[in-house]
Every structure is written in C-alpha cells, then in structure tokens.
Amino acid sequence: MKRQLILENGTFFIGEAFGSTEKMVGEVVFNTGMTGYQEILSDPSYCGQIVTMTYPLIGNYGINRDDFESIEPYIHGLVVKEVCKVPSNWRSEMTLEEYLKAKNIPGLAGIDTRKLTKIIRQHGTLKGAICDLDVNVHEVVEWLRSTNLPNDQVKRVSTKRAYPSPGRGHRVVLIDFGMKHGILRELNKRKCDVIVLPYNATAEEVLRLKPDGIMLSNGPGNPKDVPEAIEMIQGVLGKVPLFGICLGHQLFALACGADTEKMKFGHRGSNHPVKHLATGKVAITSQNHGYTVNEQSLKQTRLEVTHVALNDGTVEGLRHLDYPAFTVQYHPEASPGPEDANHLFDEFISMIEQFKKEGEVVYA
C-alpha cells in the first residue's frame, strides 16, 4: 500500500506504508543514530514529531520487552529508507511493523531519506503529514502552513499523579516533563529513594517531601511553554541540590534569567561530541532537542557554561556559581547511545552528600 509524506514547503514523498494507516501530522525531524529505534519510538521527547531515521535499514533486530523508555509512545510517525520485516535477534519478540500497528503509529518506507534530511537541514524542521495518495497535496500544504501545532506536549506526556520508586538511599524528587525510564534506572542503580512528580508540581509540594536532591527530566517542546516549572525551580534553587537533563537544562536556564531559542533542525542522535571546558575531555553523547540556551543571555546570570557541542558550539552544560546545581543538554543515561557521560549521576550523588555534610539542607 502506497502512502505519502507531505511537507509544508510543498515537497512530498511517496513510499510504502507500514504500521498503522492512521493519518498523522507533526514536526518532521531526523535522527542520526545507527541503532536505538525502539528507544526513540518510546522516548516522550518525540511527542508530536514524525522522525526520519538517517541510517538506511531499520527494524533488523526487532522489538523486545526491555528497551522501552516509556510505557506508551507519543511519536506521530516513523520514516525510513528500508524496513526489515524479518528481524534477527535473540531478544526480539515482535517486528517493528507489529509494534507500530499495536500502538497506532504510521510508518513510511522506501523514500529517499537522504534527500529528506538535506531538505530539513536546509529549511529547518518542517510541519508534515503522513496521509493517503488520494488527498489534494496543495490543500494539505496550505493547511500545514496555516496551522499551529499543539504546544501542550509536556502536559500530555507527564505523569498525572505522584508515585514512588522506593530505595534505601538518598531521596530524589524527579520532576517528570517527559521522563525517559533510563533516568529512573540510573537513580535506582544508586539506591535512590525516588518520588516522581508531575510537571506542574509547585516548589511547596516538592520541598514538603524533604528531598535530598531534585532532578529535572527531559521532555518535549518549547521550554517557555512550561511556566509552572520555571516558577517551581526558582522556588527550590539553593535549598536542595539540583540536576537537570535536556528540557530540564533549558528550564533551569530560564529560571535563572537566561534565554532559550529554537534551533534550525536540532540535535537528535547518539553520536554528538561534547567538550567539557574544565578538562578538555570530549564525550560522545546521546541527544534529542530542538531548543538551546542562548549563550549571550548567560552574561546577565550567575550561570557558567561547563560543556559545549563541538559540531556547532552550542551550550551543552551549565552550573550555578552560588548554589549546588548543574545541568546538561545531552542525555547521560543514553538509552540509546554511548554511556560516556554516565558519571554525571555519580557527581549528582556526591553533590548531595557534600551538601548534607555541610549541613546546608533547607526545606522551607
């Protein structure tokens, strides 16, 4: 069955349908990872997006029970050059197509993904629609151009109520803006007593739980669409050690008086080099973001840049000069990708222990 991907700039691609036959609209982006499609499909940060995989063969190791980053996916479509229908891996329990059908996600295969990626790199991320061949392309293009995509992604993907992930170690309140399970796994490995809260939790609700540390998770969309979180961060900053990842990093910057801006086509993949300015060491990181912290805006804050992206020089890490708080734009939990930056979770635990040792824990 043939279907098509129509972009708001008028370009369209006709390919082979797989997965769901649902019509879907979303922001079309590309991911440069050679593996990790299962984690990408289940990463809440892709909420509302149609993801193009630049690696040509996708689905060759199937879908397994262990590599999900959320229970339900929020992605709006998957575009590939070639989809493997007969996977080969000892952990495989279903094919990629079976999973997409079960979760009502449309797929499109057999198109020139290299051409599509070059269009996105040239024009920036574009709105697009996966639909049948019988639609009027011109009408779809006009509709895409005149329509604003929803900006409530964080509300859609965040937990609706608090829940615990018990441990015997330090108590960490994890704010769920679209949390990947990999973050929770890393905290659990370190025996943390984790309490997960919704995105709109207030500073009072967070501090009432007597946390030893606060973690701000990754998530989708524009950080300026989550003003509740900015206010919460301002209310806890300096009272409890804080560690932010991806969207959490951007929200932290906004809370401290910096600014964020939309990138042309973002960073999405598991092969992005990041330099630690203090040591000069380079880590290969997993990334998934379409916004970045404006470096010039940091001059009016008490924030210091700790990491930069080697590909384009954008800000990849921050620390507060007065309070125990640091954040990174990339994903130290990987899933998928290299684990070069996994040590940041240990640094967070060390920061908590040092803060406790100095007797500076303040809950109100």
Describe the structure in your own words.
The protein is α/β, with parallel strands linked by helices and 364 residues long. The chain has two domains: 2-149, Carbamoyl-phosphate synthase small subunit, N-terminal domain (Glucose Oxidase, domain 1), CATH 3.50.30.20; 154-357, Class I glutamine amidotransferase (GATase) domain (Rossmann fold). Strands 10-12-11-13-14-19-18-17-15-16 form a ten-stranded mixed β-sheet, with helices on both faces. A seven-stranded mixed beta barrel has the order 1-2-8-6-4-3-9. A two-stranded parallel sheet has the order 5-7. α8 crosses α9. 48% of the residues are buried. The chain is globular and about 65 Å long. The protein contains ten helices and 19 strands. Helices cover 24% and strands 30% of the residues.
Q: What is this structure, in a nutshell?
A:
The protein has 10 helices and 19 strands. The chain is an alpha/beta fold and 364 residues long. The protein folds into 2 domains: 148 residues, Glucose Oxidase, domain 1; 204 residues, Rossmann fold (3-Layer(aba) Sandwich).
Which secondary structure elements does this structure contain, and how are they paired or packed?
Blueprint: E1 2-7, E2 12-19, E3 24-31, H1 37-41, E4 49-53, E5 57-58, E6 77-79, E7 82-83, H2 96-102, E8 106-109, H3 113-123, E9 126-131, H4 137-146, H5 153-157, E10 163-165, E11 171-175, H6 181-189, E12 193-197, H7 203-208, E13 213-216, H8 227-236, E14 242-245, H9 247-255, E15 260-276, E16 282-293, E17 303-309, E18 315-320, E19 325-328, H10 343-357
Parallel strand pairs: 3-4, 4-6, 5-7, 6-8, 11-12, 11-13, 13-14, 14-19
Antiparallel strand pairs: 1-2, 1-9, 2-8, 3-9, 10-12, 15-16, 15-17, 17-18, 18-19
GO molecular function, one term: ATP binding
Family: Belongs to the CarA family.
EC number: 6.3.5.5
